[in-house]
Amino acid sequence: MKCNMCPRACNVDRNVNTGFCGMTNDIYAARAALHMWEEPCISGEHGSGAVFFSGCTLRCIFCQNSEIAAAQVGKKITVERLSDIFLELQDKCANNINLVTATHFVPQVAEALVKAKNKGLVIPVVYNSSAYENVSTLNMLDGLVDVYLPDMKYIDSRLSAEYSKAPDYADVAKAAIHEMVRQTGKLEFFIEDDELVKSGRVEAGIMKKGVIVRHLVLPGTTKDSKAVIKYLIDTYGDDIYISIMSQYTPFDRLKKHPLLSRKVTRKEYNSVVDYAIDCGINNGFIQEGDVAEESFIPEFDYEGI
Fold it and tell me: Which residue ranges make up the annotated binding site for [4Fe-4S] cluster?
Protein backbone atom coordinates (compact mmCIF):
# COMPACT_ATOMS: atom_id res chain seq x y z
CA MET A 1 0.00 0.00 0.00
CA LYS A 2 1.34 3.43 -0.95
CA CYS A 3 1.79 5.91 1.90
CA ASN A 4 0.06 9.28 1.78
CA MET A 5 -0.51 9.67 5.52
CA CYS A 6 1.14 13.09 5.76
CA PRO A 7 0.85 16.19 3.55
CA ARG A 8 4.02 15.21 1.67
CA ALA A 9 1.96 12.58 -0.19
CA CYS A 10 5.07 10.57 -1.05
CA ASN A 11 2.99 7.71 -2.48
CA VAL A 12 5.79 5.24 -1.75
CA ASP A 13 5.48 1.67 -0.51
CA ARG A 14 7.01 1.97 2.95
CA ASN A 15 7.18 -1.79 3.23
CA VAL A 16 10.21 -1.57 0.94
CA ASN A 17 11.20 2.12 0.78
CA THR A 18 11.37 5.15 3.06
CA GLY A 19 9.16 8.18 2.69
CA PHE A 20 10.02 11.86 3.18
CA CYS A 21 9.87 11.06 6.91
CA GLY A 22 12.92 8.82 6.48
CA MET A 23 11.12 5.75 7.81
CA THR A 24 9.73 2.48 6.55
CA ASN A 25 6.61 0.97 8.11
CA ASP A 26 8.72 -0.47 10.94
CA ILE A 27 8.33 1.53 14.15
CA TYR A 28 11.52 3.14 15.40
CA ALA A 29 11.80 5.02 18.69
CA ALA A 30 14.72 6.56 20.55
CA ARG A 31 13.46 7.07 24.11
CA ALA A 32 10.50 6.30 26.38
CA ALA A 33 10.84 7.95 29.77
CA LEU A 34 9.39 10.45 32.22
CA HIS A 35 9.76 13.93 30.77
CA MET A 36 9.65 16.94 33.10
CA TRP A 37 9.86 19.83 30.63
CA GLU A 38 6.40 20.05 29.12
CA GLU A 39 3.76 22.56 30.18
CA PRO A 40 2.82 22.25 33.90
CA CYS A 41 -0.55 20.64 33.14
CA ILE A 42 1.19 18.00 31.02
CA SER A 43 4.28 17.11 33.08
CA GLY A 44 3.09 17.93 36.58
CA GLU A 45 5.38 16.75 39.39
CA HIS A 46 5.68 13.12 38.23
CA GLY A 47 6.43 13.79 34.58
CA SER A 48 4.91 12.98 31.23
CA GLY A 49 5.49 9.54 29.73
CA ALA A 50 7.18 10.69 26.54
CA VAL A 51 7.83 8.29 23.67
CA PHE A 52 10.14 9.88 21.09
CA PHE A 53 9.64 8.39 17.62
CA SER A 54 12.29 8.50 14.91
CA GLY A 55 11.75 10.36 11.65
CA CYS A 56 9.72 13.49 10.87
CA THR A 57 7.54 14.92 8.12
CA LEU A 58 9.16 18.36 8.40
CA ARG A 59 12.75 19.50 7.85
CA CYS A 60 13.07 22.34 10.34
CA ILE A 61 16.64 23.59 10.08
CA PHE A 62 16.56 24.64 13.75
CA CYS A 63 15.17 21.32 15.07
CA GLN A 64 16.37 20.57 18.60
CA ASN A 65 15.73 16.84 18.11
CA SER A 66 17.53 16.68 14.76
CA GLU A 67 19.19 13.32 15.46
CA ILE A 68 15.91 11.49 15.66
CA ALA A 69 14.04 13.74 13.21
CA ALA A 70 16.57 12.83 10.53
CA ALA A 71 16.12 9.13 11.40
CA GLN A 72 19.76 8.83 12.47
CA VAL A 73 18.84 7.38 15.85
CA GLY A 74 16.20 4.81 16.72
CA LYS A 75 15.54 1.24 17.73
CA LYS A 76 13.06 -0.99 15.92
CA ILE A 77 10.08 -2.11 18.01
CA THR A 78 6.87 -4.00 17.37
CA VAL A 79 3.31 -2.84 17.95
CA GLU A 80 3.11 -5.27 20.86
CA ARG A 81 6.27 -3.84 22.42
CA LEU A 82 4.96 -0.29 21.97
CA SER A 83 1.77 -1.18 23.82
CA ASP A 84 3.87 -2.59 26.67
CA ILE A 85 5.97 0.58 26.76
CA PHE A 86 2.79 2.59 27.35
CA LEU A 87 1.89 0.38 30.30
CA GLU A 88 5.43 0.53 31.71
CA LEU A 89 5.30 4.33 31.66
CA GLN A 90 1.95 4.21 33.46
CA ASP A 91 3.55 1.95 36.09
CA LYS A 92 6.28 4.60 36.55
CA CYS A 93 3.52 7.07 37.57
CA ALA A 94 3.55 9.06 34.33
CA ASN A 95 0.68 11.54 34.23
CA ASN A 96 0.02 10.66 30.59
CA ILE A 97 1.40 8.94 27.51
CA ASN A 98 3.09 11.58 25.34
CA LEU A 99 3.46 10.56 21.68
CA VAL A 100 6.23 12.77 20.26
CA THR A 101 6.27 13.10 16.46
CA ALA A 102 4.27 9.97 15.69
CA THR A 103 2.59 11.17 12.47
CA HIS A 104 4.22 8.64 10.14
CA PHE A 105 3.41 5.74 12.51
CA VAL A 106 -0.22 6.63 13.29
CA PRO A 107 -1.82 3.32 12.17
CA GLN A 108 0.66 1.33 14.28
CA VAL A 109 0.34 3.72 17.23
CA ALA A 110 -3.45 3.51 17.11
CA GLU A 111 -3.22 -0.29 17.17
CA ALA A 112 -0.79 -0.17 20.10
CA LEU A 113 -3.06 2.18 22.04
CA VAL A 114 -6.05 -0.13 21.59
CA LYS A 115 -3.96 -3.06 22.82
CA ALA A 116 -2.67 -1.07 25.81
CA LYS A 117 -6.13 0.18 26.76
CA ASN A 118 -7.40 -3.40 26.63
CA LYS A 119 -4.55 -4.35 29.00
CA GLY A 120 -5.25 -1.58 31.51
CA LEU A 121 -3.98 1.76 30.18
CA VAL A 122 -6.12 4.43 31.86
CA ILE A 123 -4.01 7.60 31.91
CA PRO A 124 -4.58 10.26 29.22
CA VAL A 125 -2.89 10.07 25.84
CA VAL A 126 -1.18 13.21 24.50
CA TYR A 127 -0.38 13.61 20.80
CA ASN A 128 2.65 15.90 20.50
CA SER A 129 2.81 17.15 16.93
CA SER A 130 4.16 19.70 14.48
CA ALA A 131 0.55 20.09 13.23
CA TYR A 132 1.78 19.19 9.74
CA GLU A 133 -0.92 16.53 9.59
CA ASN A 134 -3.59 15.24 7.28
CA VAL A 135 -7.05 15.43 8.83
CA SER A 136 -7.72 11.91 7.55
CA THR A 137 -4.74 10.64 9.54
CA LEU A 138 -5.88 12.44 12.69
CA ASN A 139 -9.26 10.75 12.27
CA MET A 140 -7.55 7.43 13.03
CA LEU A 141 -6.83 8.78 16.53
CA ASP A 142 -10.36 9.99 17.29
CA GLY A 143 -11.36 8.49 20.63
CA LEU A 144 -7.81 7.30 21.39
CA VAL A 145 -6.13 10.66 22.05
CA ASP A 146 -7.29 12.89 24.91
CA VAL A 147 -4.99 15.89 24.59
CA TYR A 148 -3.42 17.38 21.49
CA LEU A 149 -0.17 19.33 21.80
CA PRO A 150 0.46 20.76 18.31
CA ASP A 151 2.78 23.50 17.17
CA MET A 152 1.67 26.48 15.13
CA LYS A 153 5.06 27.42 13.76
CA TYR A 154 4.29 30.00 11.08
CA ILE A 155 1.69 31.93 9.16
CA ASP A 156 4.13 33.25 6.55
CA SER A 157 4.65 30.65 3.80
CA ARG A 158 8.05 32.12 2.96
CA LEU A 159 9.30 31.32 6.43
CA SER A 160 7.82 27.82 6.45
CA ALA A 161 9.35 27.12 3.04
CA GLU A 162 12.79 28.36 4.03
CA TYR A 163 12.92 26.96 7.56
CA SER A 164 10.85 23.76 7.29
CA LYS A 165 10.60 22.96 3.56
CA ALA A 166 6.82 23.25 3.83
CA PRO A 167 5.34 26.28 2.03
CA ASP A 168 1.84 24.92 2.71
CA TYR A 169 2.45 24.64 6.46
CA ALA A 170 -0.01 27.30 7.66
CA ASP A 171 -3.01 26.00 5.72
CA VAL A 172 -2.26 22.41 6.73
CA ALA A 173 -1.75 23.30 10.40
CA LYS A 174 -4.95 25.35 10.55
CA ALA A 175 -7.01 22.40 9.29
CA ALA A 176 -5.21 19.96 11.60
CA ILE A 177 -5.71 22.08 14.72
CA HIS A 178 -9.37 22.54 13.84
CA GLU A 179 -9.76 18.75 13.77
CA MET A 180 -7.89 18.37 17.06
CA VAL A 181 -10.23 20.83 18.76
CA ARG A 182 -13.23 19.08 17.25
CA GLN A 183 -12.09 15.75 18.67
CA THR A 184 -11.29 16.88 22.20
CA GLY A 185 -14.01 19.45 22.84
CA LYS A 186 -13.86 21.73 25.87
CA LEU A 187 -10.82 21.98 28.09
CA GLU A 188 -10.92 19.65 31.11
CA PHE A 189 -8.48 19.12 33.96
CA PHE A 190 -8.26 16.47 36.65
CA ILE A 191 -9.57 17.51 40.05
CA GLU A 192 -9.11 15.96 43.50
CA ASP A 193 -12.39 14.02 43.24
CA ASP A 194 -11.46 12.22 40.02
CA GLU A 195 -10.95 8.50 40.47
CA LEU A 196 -7.57 8.54 38.72
CA VAL A 197 -6.39 11.24 41.13
CA LYS A 198 -7.69 9.45 44.21
CA SER A 199 -6.02 6.23 43.04
CA GLY A 200 -2.70 8.04 42.56
CA ARG A 201 -2.56 7.42 38.82
CA VAL A 202 -2.72 11.10 37.82
CA GLU A 203 -2.06 14.37 39.64
CA ALA A 204 -4.78 16.96 40.13
CA GLY A 205 -4.37 19.81 37.64
CA ILE A 206 -3.20 17.61 34.78
CA MET A 207 -5.07 18.19 31.53
CA LYS A 208 -7.74 15.57 30.90
CA LYS A 209 -9.05 16.83 27.56
CA GLY A 210 -8.18 19.65 25.23
CA VAL A 211 -5.65 21.32 22.97
CA ILE A 212 -2.53 23.32 23.80
CA VAL A 213 -1.03 25.03 20.76
CA ARG A 214 2.66 25.81 21.04
CA HIS A 215 4.43 28.63 19.26
CA LEU A 216 8.21 28.91 19.38
CA VAL A 217 9.34 32.50 18.92
CA LEU A 218 12.23 32.61 16.46
CA PRO A 219 14.81 35.40 16.24
CA GLY A 220 13.82 38.19 13.88
CA THR A 221 10.29 36.90 13.22
CA THR A 222 8.11 38.66 15.80
CA LYS A 223 5.77 39.93 13.08
CA ASP A 224 4.91 36.37 12.08
CA SER A 225 4.69 35.28 15.73
CA LYS A 226 2.09 37.96 16.33
CA ALA A 227 0.16 36.81 13.26
CA VAL A 228 0.11 33.27 14.69
CA ILE A 229 -1.12 34.50 18.08
CA LYS A 230 -3.82 36.66 16.51
CA TYR A 231 -5.08 33.80 14.36
CA LEU A 232 -5.30 31.41 17.33
CA ILE A 233 -7.05 33.89 19.62
CA ASP A 234 -9.45 35.11 16.93
CA THR A 235 -10.30 31.56 15.91
CA TYR A 236 -10.44 29.70 19.22
CA GLY A 237 -10.57 32.24 22.03
CA ASP A 238 -10.60 30.44 25.37
CA ASP A 239 -11.28 27.02 23.84
CA ILE A 240 -7.55 26.25 23.70
CA TYR A 241 -4.38 27.09 25.58
CA ILE A 242 -1.55 28.87 23.79
CA SER A 243 2.00 28.20 24.92
CA ILE A 244 4.43 30.94 23.85
CA MET A 245 7.92 29.47 23.95
CA SER A 246 11.30 31.22 24.14
CA GLN A 247 13.58 28.18 24.21
CA TYR A 248 14.94 28.53 20.67
CA THR A 249 18.51 27.21 20.68
CA PRO A 250 21.01 28.53 18.08
CA PHE A 251 23.08 25.46 17.27
CA ASP A 252 26.47 25.79 15.59
CA ARG A 253 25.06 24.33 12.38
CA LEU A 254 22.95 27.49 11.97
CA LYS A 255 25.89 29.89 11.66
CA LYS A 256 25.24 30.24 7.93
CA HIS A 257 21.74 31.57 8.71
CA PRO A 258 22.27 35.11 10.08
CA LEU A 259 18.88 35.42 11.77
CA LEU A 260 18.92 31.94 13.29
CA SER A 261 22.49 32.10 14.58
CA ARG A 262 21.47 33.97 17.75
CA LYS A 263 19.07 33.55 20.64
CA VAL A 264 15.71 35.26 20.81
CA THR A 265 16.12 38.49 22.74
CA ARG A 266 14.07 39.18 25.83
CA LYS A 267 12.68 42.24 24.03
CA GLU A 268 11.50 40.10 21.09
CA TYR A 269 9.86 37.51 23.32
CA ASN A 270 8.20 40.09 25.57
CA SER A 271 6.79 41.92 22.56
CA VAL A 272 5.00 38.73 21.48
CA VAL A 273 3.70 38.06 24.99
CA ASP A 274 2.52 41.66 25.35
CA TYR A 275 0.76 41.39 22.01
CA ALA A 276 -1.04 38.24 23.17
CA ILE A 277 -2.19 40.10 26.28
CA ASP A 278 -3.40 43.01 24.15
CA CYS A 279 -5.35 40.51 22.03
CA GLY A 280 -7.13 39.29 25.15
CA ILE A 281 -5.44 35.96 25.82
CA ASN A 282 -6.74 34.23 28.94
CA ASN A 283 -5.43 30.68 28.63
CA GLY A 284 -1.72 30.82 28.08
CA PHE A 285 1.72 29.69 29.17
CA ILE A 286 4.87 31.76 28.97
CA GLN A 287 8.49 31.00 29.79
CA GLU A 288 10.55 33.15 32.10
CA GLY A 289 14.30 33.57 32.33
CA ASP A 290 16.94 32.23 29.96
CA VAL A 291 15.63 28.86 28.79
CA ALA A 292 17.53 28.58 25.48
CA GLU A 293 19.59 25.74 26.83
CA GLU A 294 20.29 22.22 25.65
CA SER A 295 19.04 20.90 29.02
CA PHE A 296 15.60 20.73 27.37
CA ILE A 297 16.95 18.15 24.92
CA PRO A 298 16.86 14.61 26.34
CA GLU A 299 19.42 11.91 25.72
CA PHE A 300 18.26 9.66 22.90
CA ASP A 301 19.85 6.62 24.46
CA TYR A 302 16.98 4.13 23.99
CA GLU A 303 15.95 4.37 27.63
CA GLY A 304 12.66 2.53 28.09
CA ILE A 305 12.69 1.10 24.57
Answer: 56, 60, 63
